[in-house]
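Glucose-6-phosphate 1-epimerase
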Amino acid sequence: MKEDIHLMPRYILHNGRGASATVSFQGAQVLSWKTEHGEELLFTSKKFRNQGTQEQYGFAREKIWLYEKDPPPLLGDFSGKAFVDLLLKPQEEDRKVWPHSDVRVEGLDTLNYLDKLLQNQCFTEQGCSLSFESEVDRVYIETNNMVAVLDHQKRRTFVIRKDGLPDIVVWNPWKKKSKAIKDIGNEEYMHMLCVDSASVENPITLKPGQEWTGRLELSLLLSS
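Structure:
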């Protein structure tokens, strides 16, 4: 392990042909990847340590990862290849930064959503599940009739079933906005998550004599 000019601990890997890679313990970032001829293959700005916020890169970027001296064996043929295992272990103070790291919402993948934090611009959900590291305020459009909220820490799953309500609202104010909301405590965002059915994109309008029925069903499943 060596120190670079910014005093960040780093690990330098070499293979038998002379190629190398440099991995920083801060954020487990790959800082350099060079061929056996010394050609640098990665671009890294000299100002990269001073730009961006945690919301841009996520909490893991700012954390110091631990070197795993006795990692489990890797699957596949890794003979002749150099690698290092870095682990990120949560500490008690980290719970204030990543309170929902063990909570995710499933059933929203590939759906379009309106992002209220970006002037209701429309995006498509790319992940297979939605996790939380910063403020989220979205309306998922024309969703499935069932979504699930998985809480791994408490080993439980909330299942939401709905009829007549096409959209799903997902909201957590996070730290900064919680302080501006009068009816939410400053730290209560760590213990709540709003996942609700709605009809936002196409509001339901009833004329005299018309009827409409909507149904929302919540159930709890416990894991052993």
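Residues 1-5, 50-56 have pLDDT under 50 and may be disordered.
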